[in-house]
Structures are given as structure tokens and as C-alpha cells.
Amino acid sequence: MGKPSTRVLLVSNDARLSTALHHPPLPAKYFVISVPTSAQALENFGDFDLLLLDSSTPGMDSREVCKRIRDQASVPIIILGPCVNEIDRVLALNAGADYCVVKSDSLHELQASMDAVMRRSYPCPVGQNSPGAAAQAGEVLVAGPLRLNPRNRDVTLHGRPVRLTPKEFDLLAMLMEDPETLHTRKAIIARVWNEHWFGSTRTLDVHIGALRQKLGSYDWIETKRGIGFRLGTVPSPGARDSP
């Protein structure tokens, strides 16, 4: 069996729902991790390709959680709740959700919604939007102690693995493929997200910040204000950390 390609974060304290989603009928392409609180969702959403928010989860309202996540990322979100009345669906969509699905014992509609939102959000397989020539050739990209392998989507720094989300990986690959080029914000969004994406450009800044933090230094990515980004110089020992 191949490695699951889509990491799903389920935010719910409903044990029955969690158990159902961890077993068939969901196809193997979905790998589901569950957290019981909204706070955990806000801490961990960046590591996932799809979010399922159960509206009955105690704590912060699911629509408020959705708004906060949407301010930072374009990850697809499905809210599980009543969704019977038009107003419920409208409020969920206005909060930034991609779908509002009635929570029930049957998972058929939920699975269909998951399939649909993934097709729309990731026209190419997860993490494979418009690869550059180096990525297509499977060439390992190297910048000092930083290595990126497009074939197995591994990144190491000083020989230690760096765990990146699919979007973070694609963003870093774009910068490393052509390190001398100053990539405009528009070009990065078109390549890493897609040319028809109309979300906030702040999403790009959030991903740049996350990359700098995971690589341990602000210097790995150079910013040209009002223009875009390019791969920075290899940080010297003791270089400042990302703010």
C-alpha cells in the first residue's frame, strides 16, 4: 500500500466520529489525526492538507476557529454541524469554510465533500503544483548544509530532517531551484498555490515566516519589500533566529 498523500486534521471530541474516520470506508489516501480541542487545532493546522471542524467541539466556536485559520492559511476547511438551514451554511461559508456538511452516522457525504474540496484546492497531487525543471528531473537541491530531495520530498539541514508542510516544501523548492532569481509575490502564489487563487497574500508571509523558523534563521530567505523573495545567503554560525 502506498503512503497516504493527504493529512487530515479532525477537530472533535466525538469518539464515535473519530473512530469512524480512522477506519474504512475512508480510502487509504486520507491519513486522519484527531485533536479534541479548538486550541490544539490552532496550534497544529499548519501540518495538514485538510481540516474537519466539528461544530459541537467544546471551547471556541468552530466558525471563529475557521476565521482565525483562514487569516493565516489557505488550507481547505470543512465544518461538520447542523448545516440544515440556509443560515447555518451561509455563516460557515462566510467564516471561510469550503463546505458545511451535516454531521451524521453516514460518512458518504463527508467523503464526497473531502474528495471535491481536495480536487478544487489541489488541482495537482498534494505538494506537486507546477514543479520546476529541477524538481521534474528529481535533482537534489543543495544550499550549503540545506538539502532538498524532490523525489521523496525530504528536506535536511546539517543532516537532520526538517518537517515541512506541502506548501512550505513547494515554496522552498521554488527558491532553491533558482537561488539568484528574485521571485515576485504574484509568481510565488501562482506556482505554489495556483494562478486562480484569490486568498489573502498574507498567507505567503505566514509561510515564509514558518520556513524561516523551521530553518532556524531569518537569513535563509531574503525579502525585497514590495517585490518578493529569493533564497538568502547561507547563515553563518550564530546567525540570528527568525523573529
TrEMBL record:
PROSITE patterns, alphabetized: OMPR_PHOB, RESPONSE_REGULATORY
Keyword Cell membrane applies: no
The record's SUPFAM superfamilies line, in alphabetical order, gives: C-terminal effector domain of the bipartite response regulators (SSF46894), CheY-like (SSF52172)
Sorted alphabetically, the keyword list is: DNA-binding, Phosphoprotein, Transcription, Transcription regulation, Two-component regulatory system
InterPro entries the record matches: CheY-like_superfamily, OmpR/PhoB-type_DNA-bd, Sig_transdc_resp-reg_C-effctor, Sig_transdc_resp-reg_receiver, WalR-like, WH-like_DNA-bd_sf
Q: Does the keyword GTP-binding feature in the UniProt annotation?
A: no
Response regulatory domain ranges (all copies): 7-118
User: An example Gene Ontology cellular component term from the record?
Assistant: cytosol
Could you tell me which PANTHER family the record lists for this protein? REGULATOR OF RPOS, TWO-COMPONENT RESPONSE REGULATOR ORR33
Name of this protein:
DNA-binding response regulator
Q: Which organism is it from?
A: Streptomyces spectabilis
The uppermost taxa in this organism's lineage are: Bacteria, Bacillati, Actinomycetota, Actinomycetes, Kitasatosporales
